Structures are given as structure tokens and as C-alpha cells.
Amino acid sequence: MNVMQQDLSRKTHTLHNHVHRREVLNVCGLSAGYGPMRVIHDLDLIVSSGERIGIVGLNGHGKSTLFYAIAGLTGWQRGSIKLNGIEVGRTRSQGPGRYTHQIVRAGLALIPQGDEIFHGLTVEEHLDSGAFTPRSWRERKERKERILQIFPPLKKLMAVPVGRLSGGERRMVSIGRGLMGEASLFLVDEPSLGLAPKIGKNVIDALMALDLGGSAMVIAEQNVSLLEGRVDRIIGMHVGKLKGEASAALMLHDHGEA
Ligand SMILES: Nc1ncnc2c1ncn2[C@@H]1O[C@H](COP(=O)(O)OP(=O)(O)OP(=O)(O)O)[C@@H](O)[C@H]1O
């Protein structure tokens, strides 16, 4: 193959991939907040299948609120949010959480900040609780094996109540549970937060190693250096707006903090 043929073949390959990429999330003109406060301002975001995207921004600039808005959990919202082509946004006035079950059925898995876990349940019970659709329940054994492949430290802890685990192990359980279902969009909120740097990095490494298949993942992080060069795109978030690729200033700031 000569250079021109190679180039053409590469282009065709890229085009081929492009054609088969499905739009998992399409957010258009989204504003959202709580009571009189508007946190998200007229925001647009498209995420395609197979993509891993980082959203970086400092504390309080609206990363979690964006995730909550997609999950239908903010006080109010306006604008369009399409999940796998299904409109799950629009104006909502009947209270946060009212449509969240439908959004989850449309393919969303929200892995919230901190560890949403039940201290008395074992690791295995937590993972099983993530397999809440009939299909994922049938396949729960294989699904658990997949989680244990990305989080090997959990293997010997399956029968241990999570209240006895370390912070890093709990984070693995919390993320693992989110990955047990059949979601096509995973929103992972600050997976490294509160963990020792090495443990935080291990958790991020596991998320990077995960085979997404046709699904997509958006990871919110304050520490841009954990995601740099490892995700398909990094988008900066500043006072409720997305700023294209993360700005150099933001990166420098985060590097300085790390
Ligand atoms: N449930 C809520 N009710 C009222 N205000 C809220 C609520 N949750 C967040 N806020 C406010 O919305 C703004 C954005 O917070 P948000 O948590 O979305 O930011 P963030 O970028 O995710 O930062 P963090 O890393 O702290 O989560 C903040 O001013 C915060 O005080």
C-alpha cells in the first residue's frame, strides 16, 4: 500500500467509525437550577457512543448540577435533553425526581459524588442491587465478574459489609454498582474526590480500562491531570457554561492544586 492508499484507507476507516457512532446524549439550550438560582446557563453538549468525556471545573461551577439536570433531579430546568433519541428534558415543574425512573429506563446511570452506599449490606449485595433490569439481573454473575476484573481488590471482599471497607474500596463498590446495569450513558461525578492520590488514580485507571462498547461515559473531575490525554475530549466548565476544550488557565490552576 503506498502512502496515498494508506491515507485514503485511514480516512475511510475514520468515516466508517463516524457513521456508526450513535448520538447517546444531545443537550440543547439547557438551563437549570434550584429555586431562584440558575446554575446551568443555556448549555449544549453532544456525546456519542463509545466516547469518554471529561468535564473539569472548580468546586461549585455546576458539574454536579449538570448531571442532576440530565437525571431530572434539579429544582427546575428548561431546554432539550435527548437520551438515545428520547426527549427526557423540557420544562419540568412537578418536582425533582418525578421522571428520574423514566430517564434511567431510557439508559442513564448516574454515579453520584461521594459514596451512596448502605453500610450494612455486603459488597455483593450492592453489586446485585445495581442489576435492577430483568436482563442485567439474569446476567448478574457475568456482570459481577466484569466489575471484579476492573476492581480486583473487591474480589476477596464480596461477603464483607461495606461499612467496614476503606474509602477507596467503597468508591469501587459505588462505581461498580453503577456499572452493573444496562445503561448507555454513565455520568461519573468526581470519582477521585476524597481519596488518597494513588487510590484516586487507580479508580480513574479502572474507568479508563472499561470497555464501553456502544455506551458513553462523562466523568466530572476537579483534577484535570487525572484525565488529560486519557479521555476523548476534556471540556471545561465555568459558572454553569461549558467552555469547549478546557482552557490552559484552568489546567494550570488544577496542576497547581494537585
Ligand atoms: N440541592 C441544591 N440546592 C440548592 N443549591 C444547590 C444544590 N446543589 C448545588 N447547589 C448550588 O449550585 C451551585 C453549583 O454546585 P454544583 O454542586 O453543581 O457544582 P460542582 O461544579 O459540581 O461542584 P462540586 O464539586 O462542589 O460538586 C453551587 O452554588 C451550589 O451551592
From TrEMBL:
Alphabetical list of InterPro entries matching this protein: ABC_transporter-like_ATP-bd, ABC_transporter-like_CS, BCAA_Transport_ATP-bd_LivF, P-loop_NTPase
Record-linked PROSITE patterns: ABC_TRANSPORTER_1, ABC_TRANSPORTER_2
Sequence ranges assigned to domain ABC transporter in this UniProt record: 19-258
This protein's record includes keyword Cell cycle: no
GO molecular function, one term: ATP binding
Top-rank taxon, per record: Bacteria
Gene3D superfamilies per UniProt: P-loop containing nucleotide triphosphate hydrolases
Keyword terms of this UniProt record: Amino-acid transport, ATP-binding, Nucleotide-binding, Transport
Keyword Signal applies: no
Protein family membership: Belongs to the ABC transporter superfamily.
Official protein name in the record: ATP-binding cassette domain-containing protein
